[in-house]
Amino acid sequence: MSKAFPKAEDLFLCLKDAVREQVSDQTAMVGIHTGGAWVAKRLHKVLGLNLPLGEIDVSFYRDDFAQRGLKSRVQPSSIEFEVNDREILLIDDVLYSGRTIRAAMNEIFDHGRPKKVMLGVLLDRGGRQLPIDANFVGGKVYLKEVERIALTKSDDELFEFVIRSGVET
Amino acid sequence: MNLQLSRTGEMRHLLTIEGLPKQVIYDVLDAAESFMPVTKRDVKKVPLLRGKTIFNLFFESSTRTRTTFEIAAKRLSADVININVGTSAVAKGESLLDTIANLSAMNADMFVVRHGQSGAPHLIAKYVPPHINVINAGDGSHAHPTQALLDMYTIRYFKKKFEGLRVAIVGDISHSRVARSQIHALTTLGASEVRVIAPKTLLPANVENLGVSVYNDIALGLQEVDVIIMLRLQRERMSGVNLPSSQEFYSAYGLTQKRLSLAKSDAIVMHPGPINRGVEIESLVADGRSSVILPQVTFGIAIRMAVMSILAGQAK
């Protein structure tokens, strides 16, 4: 069974407003594949950021590689700006355990030494397993461990969250 | 029993291209593509195989293949041990399986094996404990799967797809494990036509059964092809008189500028290396604008990273 909840488009507006005050033309934005890259792409456009948008796929940095193996389609990461001394705003769709963010930070540091790394997420669903928090959030909802949430994107680029209750794997 | 695929169809060892499903090949090419940017960064490493120990077991000499496997493993953060087996245990009379048992006892996670005997990597894969993966880095005249995969990567990179492509493989087909693996890969991926161009003495018996068309005349064989793959004359594997002299081979089968002009104008020229200038290929062609021989080497690292990480990532 799936239900639509909460309204991702509203969260996007909140996130955009929260981020707008904090970015300058020197801020570099990096989206995490797949959902985070979608959010970052739209934010990057509406905020009119100068530096090229970066995208990363954290598959090569995940801490559960030994259990899960390599996902068959890993997107190539692309960071086309100088990372050293840069302010970086990392964007993801959902913040949960914090493990993805840890992996993403590790990858960013392999491109150079940023001056500052910030995190913006559409939704914070709680359930952290690491001491990681977001600087900017669209909204917070506490979900049970068995609930899985995924961001979807329609043909006209509108976001929607889909929640599925399932057996925890 | 299929040694290289698990019951659920995942790759456990990479021993040969023959019988490898199309999707498995595409998964390797796609993974390799995502490893390409890693080699251009400040830190040319990802932590995927941190803590894993990979043994490069070369029972036969090789520089390029061994080096690219070593670089690939290091870029994945694995520990790599190079063993030049020819000068060590084997010289003291140890059997192949005893060597493997000893290295397994040193907690190896993966063996990359090159061997002069066809089938040696299969034998090793059959006897290693289930947590160890084996990669064939070339066995006798049987198979060289990672070379074929990097060649497929190169073709896809420059030609975008395999459908509609006409590919010619030229030279010493009978001694070439590379040619065999390429033919299997190209037919699996749906290339329109695979041609082999060689004198009768350098063609294996019944080569047509592999699904290729045979040409003894290079001028006919190169007409309208999209990809030309030149092979090295493998003198070390030749016994008796397979060909009169390398000059004669060059005059009949060497890839010259003139012959290259018979192929499509945007044809690419590949060679697994090491190249013998003036034996298989004219210098002007090897260094010319159609040549993609050096990109092949670069892609080889990403392909080997992909194979190693796919194998290491399978649940044991």
Strand content of chain B: 5-15%
Provide the residue-averaged pLDDT of chain B.
92
| Global shape of chain A | globular
Compressed to H and E, one letter per element, the order of chain B equals HEHEHEHEHEHEEHEHHEHH
Here the CATH topology of chain A equals: Rossmann fold
* Level-1 CATH class name of the largest domain in chain B: Alpha Beta
Radius of gyration of chain B, taken over Cα atoms and rounded to an integer in Å:
19 Å
CATH superfamily of the largest domain in chain B: Aspartate/ornithine carbamoyltransferase
Description:
By secondary structure, chain A is of the alpha/beta class. Chain A is built from 4 helices and 8 strands. The two termini of chain A are 17 Å apart. In chain B, helix 4 links the parallel strand 3 and strand 4. Chain B starts with 21 loop residues before the first helix and ends with a helix. With 316 residues, chain B is an alpha/beta fold. The longest helix of chain B is centred in the C-terminal third of the chain and has 20 residues. Chain B folds into 2 domains: 138 residues, Aspartate/ornithine carbamoyltransferase (Rossmann fold, 3-Layer(aba) Sandwich), CATH 3.40.50.1370; 149 residues, Aspartate/ornithine carbamoyltransferase (Rossmann fold, 3-Layer(aba) Sandwich). Chain B has 11 helices and 9 strands. Chains A and B meet through helix 3 and helix 4 of A and helix 1 of B.
Structural key phrases:
heterodimer, A: 169 residues, Rossmann fold, 3-stranded antiparallel β-sheet, 4 helices, globular, B: 316 residues, 4-stranded parallel β-sheet
